[in-house]
Amino acid sequence: MRELLRTNDAVLLSAVGALLDGAGIDHLVLDQNMSILEGSLGVIPRRLLVPDDDLPAARRLLTDAGLAHELRSDG
Asked: Name one Pfam family in it (predicted).
């Protein structure tokens, strides 16, 4: 699994999750519970991961959706 993006924006995570679901790309959101525990300070961002083999397709999908600025540069 490789990190596709990191954010505190729950709406963005939901939208990206829907895009990935629509494209048939599995994904996993990490740190969701830790982020809730720390409150709304935004100290612990949530990480969205996709399988290694799907990373190029997922990056293309988000770029096509106008979300390239949200992608991890090291992904």
From this structure: DUF2007
Q: How far apart are the C-alpha atoms of 53 and 42, rounded to whole Å?
A: 30
Give the C-alpha separation, 12 to 68, whole Å: 12
Q: Where are the domains of the chain?
A: 2-56
- The yes/no answer on whether domain 2-56 falls in CATH 3.40.50.2300 is no
pTM value is 0.84
Count of residues in the chain: 75
CA distance 44 to 35: 5
Question: Residues 1-20: pLDDT tens digits?
Answer: 999 999 989 899 999 999 99
